[in-house]
Amino acid sequence: MPPSCRRLLLAAVVASLGCGSSSAQPHGSPVLLEVLCEIDGFTQRIWSVDPDAGVPATVSANTSKIDFVFDRRLDGKRIEDSVDGNPTPKENPPITVSWPDMATVMSDPPFAPEVFYNSLPGFGAGTTYAFMRPRIAGFPSATEITFTLDPNGLTSVYGEPMQGPTAIRMTTSPLTLTLPNSTATVPLTYQAAVVFSTRAPAAAAMMPFLRVSANGAALPFEVVADRSDARKVYVVPTCADGWPSMVRVEVKAEPGLPDGFGRPLSAAATGSFMTSRIASPPIDGGCGPIEGGTPDAGERDAAAADAGVPDAADDASVPDA
Asked: Given phi > 0 = left and psi -120 to 50 = alpha, else beta, which region is 293?
């Protein structure tokens, strides 16, 4: 075959392959179908192109991921970079987030979102999605959050800009706390968990709003952060021999206690726990017994049962723990 014919044949093959590649993806602007939040492994819709789709008035501030679902493939290179074959967030991503006082009131460490792209049809045939993921989950409580979308960064594979709103808003729910409340007794070294509904603040910001007491007497304590959960902290005793034995310890969070973004708790939250009758051996620096009252009969019996100590009605032959 003459060289000129071979060149023509090669050109025809390349042209046919190119047409096949283009025809695999339909032309047209990507349509934003819905936006969903992921919270503790569950998804919740916060916006939909369908006006009849229900969306909640508020969303948990503990959102860990926000998915922006489109009806077709996007140009992933406009959304994320690739370093050594691994997806890397762009310095100027096509989706950004803001709230009213973001520039003046910020968490420590600062809120840091990353934007990625997933070309798999995770939300229905033909769909793809871009998603924003805070490095540390959580948004400020009771706040309107705005996600701004850049149509020139969210395009089809042919560069056609997205269709849909360029600003999506969600309002986060007010700050709440979960404190320990149990009838079971705990050891004197017990660390009482305080769980925020979003990121917890630094210990120094919490201390003015936390109270720990037993029988009306204040107990010394400190706050320790959980290393694996940004929402959780622990109230721990600072006395060398731990909490006082055989008392109900009360923990109270006063109104004004902030979350990690400075949003205040609106109403007081309280919790308590019952310490064991079995005390640790005295240690120098211990706080000593708590005066001002004794636990009621029910608490004494519960503590004794937990520690394996018989009450007066039990067989006296049962050994003490």
From this structure: left
User: Which parts of the chain are beta strand (E)?
Assistant: 32-39, 42-48, 65-70, 80-83, 86-89, 95-98, 113-118, 128-134, 144-149, 167-171, 177-178, 181-186, 192-196, 210-214, 217-218, 221-225, 232-237, 248-253, 269-275
DSSP state of 264: B
| Residue appearing with tokens 């860990």 | 64
CA dihedral 21, 24, 28, 34 (to 10 degrees): -130
User: Which amino acid, residue 289?
Assistant: P
- For 100-112, b where at least 16 C-beta lie within 10 A, e where not — what string? eebeeeebeeebe
Q: Which of 206, 228, 210, 229 is nearest to 219 (CA)?
A: 210
pLDDT digits (tens, 9 = 90+) for 231-277: 999 999 999 889 999 999 999 999 999 999 999 999 999 999 999 98
d(CA 231, CA 199): 5
Mean pLDDT to the nearest integer, 177-191: 94
Domains, in order of start, for the chain: 27-171 (2.60.40), 177-307 (2.60.40.3710)
Name the residue with tokens 């109104």: 255
